[in-house]
């Protein structure tokens, strides 16, 4: 009798669970693909409902769980009439909604900048194709994509950031690309040990990390040992030894000469007394003028009249 291979019962149990999961997930994935919309579709819906000026200038646009496109987009747009200048819109599920004024940015956290809708030439569909090609070259698999559209800080250039997630919703990679030209600016890949592995030793590959040819070359040499705290004596020039029995001679002071500086020494100036300022009117003349005013025959010592003031001499 020939031996026949018999599948274990656990195999059929696992296979049955996989088929059941696939049966329930397939309609959900197909429904999401039918409801998915691109970034252009979301902006067009909002423009049709609230006017073109409502999404003319954007701060941020984001969508989550795209397979490959998300079913809903959240847009933060500039609104000049709003007290805090920013307003949220939501587009998805066949409807659009004004989600109110933003309170998370102004005045404490102003946005990094504003991007014009006209400057976005790479929509989410084109961005996904670029990212899919980059992931294929890096041999990284993913299950869904999160989209973020923002402006490059201190500029007007729109930048896409796409985050790739695996089946366990864990990050598999990040790609930054210009929404104006499609240029890939930066890629970050996460290589784990296995599917769903949360090992902290996952390998990170960042295109922006310094390369070997960019490292600073340091001189190679022996490393000084500072473990022994020895006192180093200063270098003393060779001197003629002096016998111990030689008497100590008195040190004669050297003659000090005036240093040559090119500046004349300060000379002491003798203080001379200031000349006395005399009144131009001579006392003798004043007295003579006063005597002429006394009437004849009168004694000045017995006269009780107040004499007039002296007349100043004419020049």
Protein architecture, described:
There is one protein chain. The chain is α+β, with helices and mostly antiparallel strands. The protein has a domain at 38-209. The chain has 4 helices and 10 strands. Strands 1, 2, 3, 4, 5, 6, 7, 8, 9 and 10 form a 10-stranded antiparallel β-sheet that branches. It starts with 8 loop residues before the first helix and ends in a 23-residue tail after the last helix.
Sum up the overall morphology in one term: flat
* Beta-strand percentage range: 15-25%
What is the string of SSEs from the N terminus onward? HHEEEEEHEEEEEH
- Which secondary-structure class do the elements indicate? alpha+beta
Proportion of helical residues:
10-25%
Describe the structure using short key phrases.
315 residues, alpha+beta, ten-stranded antiparallel β-sheet, flat
Describe the secondary structure blueprint for this structure:
Blueprint: H1 9-35, H2 39-50, E1 57-66, E2 72-78, E3 86-92, E4 95-101, E5 115-116, H3 124-138, E6 144-151, E7 158-165, E8 171-178, E9 184-191, E10 203-206, H4 283-292
Antiparallel strand pairs: 1-2, 1-5, 1-6, 2-3, 3-4, 6-7, 7-8, 8-9, 9-10
Summarize this entry quickly:
Helices cover 20% and strands 22% of the residues. With 315 residues, the protein is an alpha+beta fold. It has a domain at 38-209.
């Amino acid at each position: 009798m020939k031996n026949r291979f018999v599948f274990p019962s656990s195999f059929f149990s696992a296979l049955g669970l996989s088929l059941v999961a696939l049966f329930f997930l397939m309609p959900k994935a197909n429904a999401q693909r039918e409801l998915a919309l691109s970034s252009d579709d979301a902006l067009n819906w909002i423009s049709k409902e609230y006017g073109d000026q409502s999404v003319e200038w954007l701060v941020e646009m984001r969508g989550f769980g795209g397979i490959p496109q998300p079913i809903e987009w959240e847009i933060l747009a500039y609104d000049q009439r709003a007290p805090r200048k920013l307003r949220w819109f939501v587009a998805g599920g066949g409807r659009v909604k004004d989600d109110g004024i933003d309170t998370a940015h102004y005045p404490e956290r102003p946005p990094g900048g504003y991007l014009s809708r006209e400057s976005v030439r790479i929509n989410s569909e084109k961005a996904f194709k670029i990212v899919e090609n980059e992931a294929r070259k890096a041999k990284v698999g993913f299950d869904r994509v999160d989209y973020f559209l923002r402006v490059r800080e201190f500029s007007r250039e729109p930048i896409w950031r796409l985050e790739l997630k695996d089946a366990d919703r864990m990050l598999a990679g990040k790609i930054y690309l210009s929404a104006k030209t499609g240029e890939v600016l930066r890629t970050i890949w996460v290589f784990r040990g296995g599917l769903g592995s949360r090992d902290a030793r996952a390998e990170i590959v960042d295109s922006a990390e310094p390369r070997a040819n960019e490292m600073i070359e340091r001189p190679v040499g022996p490393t000084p040992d500072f473990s022994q705290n020895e006192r180093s004596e200063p270098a003393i020039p060779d001197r003629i030894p002096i016998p111990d029995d030689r008497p100590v001679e008195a040190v004669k002071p050297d003659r000090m000469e005036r240093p040559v500086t090119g500046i004349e020494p300060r000379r002491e100036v003798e203080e001379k007394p200031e000349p006395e300022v005399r009144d131009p009117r001579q006392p003798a003349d004043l007295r003579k003028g006063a005597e002429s005013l006394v009437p004849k025959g009168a004694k000045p010592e017995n006269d009780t009249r107040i004499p007039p003031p002296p007349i100043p001499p004419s020049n």
